[in-house]
Amino acid sequence: xxxxxxxxxxxxxxxxxxxxxxxxxxxxxxxxxxxxxxxxxxxxxxxxxxxxxxxxxxxxxxxxxxxxxxxxxxxxxxxxxxxxxxxxxxxxxxxxxxxxxxxxxxxxxxxxxxxxxxxxxxxxxxxxxxxxxxxxxxxxxxxxxxxxxxxxxx
Amino acid sequence: xxxxxxxxxxxxxxxxxxxxxxxxxxxxxxxxxxxxxxxxxxxxxxxxxxxxxxxxxxxxxxxxxxxxxxxxxxxxxxxxxxxxxxxxxxxxxxxxxxxxxxxxxxxxxxxxxxxxxxxxxxxxxxxxxxxxxxxxxxxxxxxxxxxxxxxxxxxxxxxxxxxxxxxxxxxxxxxxxxxxxxxxxxxxxxxxxxxxxxxxxxxxxxxxxxxxxxxxxxxxxxxxxxxxxxxxxxxxxxxxxxxxxxxxxxxxxxxxxxxx
Lengths: 154, 260
Fold this sequence. Notes:
With 154 residues, chain A is an alpha/beta fold. Chain A folds into 2 domains: 1-33; 42-139, no CATH class. Helix content of chain A is 26%, strand content 31%. In chain A, strands 7-1-4-3-2-6-5-8 form an 8-stranded mixed β-sheet, with no helix packed on it. In chain A, strand 5 (100-105) and strand 6 (112-117) form a beta hairpin. Chain B has 260 residues and is mainly alpha-helical. Chain B has one domain (51-257). The radius of gyration of chain B is 22 Å and the shape is elongated. The relative contact order of chain B is 0.16. Chains A and B meet through helix 1 of A and helix 2, helix 6, helix 7 and helix 8 of B. Chain B: The chain crosses the membrane at residues 12-35, 47-71, 147-172, 198-217, 238-257. Chain B: It is a multi-pass membrane protein.
């Protein structure tokens, strides 16, 4: 058996490593309290149907990831989904007020994400602003349903 | 015919007697364990022997299992264009199943067999009886620190295993095969729950730690004090604890995840 000092030091290190692993599993893996150094450019958008959109889903512009969805809640006045997203701070003051947001799906089975399309308005979006021009998620079953009912009518 | 029946009955009685002895043994060693600095020193020494010295095998096998999961998961998921789900696959299988179970199996092989052999040799060379002669209780001096060290070390090892395994999956999936790192982590974070997955995995490994250490130490303490007895008890430790871990894993999984 090695000397007592070494034993104690290595057991201490072992405990620390275990604690580190627990912290890693809690915060990095299960996202216990996920706080990505909040950028201060948040906008909200209202959607009629968000499909499978989840908090932490991607927000893209021209296919490039520019932010994440931070929260989704039900707006109890209009019964729409209120989606808050956090965007890259570099875009602050560069997105026009009539930027459009659409919920899209990556691939047939992939995740839902929000894709932004810049507008032409002269006024710019500010922190806490609202995107007016939104397009709900495309639900595949509804599309198929519509297609079937249309084709049987003929 | 009657002899065969008698043989069956005898082995049944022996099993029940051994179960009873092991229960009494556990109670006697743990009840009234002194909370002195000397007892703490013994415990630290055993945590070193069963925990720190098992670290290498846990780190290496965790890394490789994570890497294999990453590779296998990727080749399957990429067929469906769903390779972003790699993170959640690796993390869920590790935290729920693989980390507690594989760490417990490795622990049984690496530390459990060593515990059995050590205590068995102490018994065979009559060190335990001489301790009793000079008025030291071997259950408290030898057995209790080893039991408590095992209960403590395995959950930590299994947490480390999960962390290293996810690192291995990340290495293969993101660094090598080019899965989007944002999707890897965000899918993982939305799929893995702290309470449902991490804590349940931890509970599993606590149960396994209890069972494996108990079996190992009891087999060492209860063996026939010959060289053949030691070899047999060491084998039994590994076989029994592996079976117990796998069987209990099914029961625990059924209890924890059946309604998720």
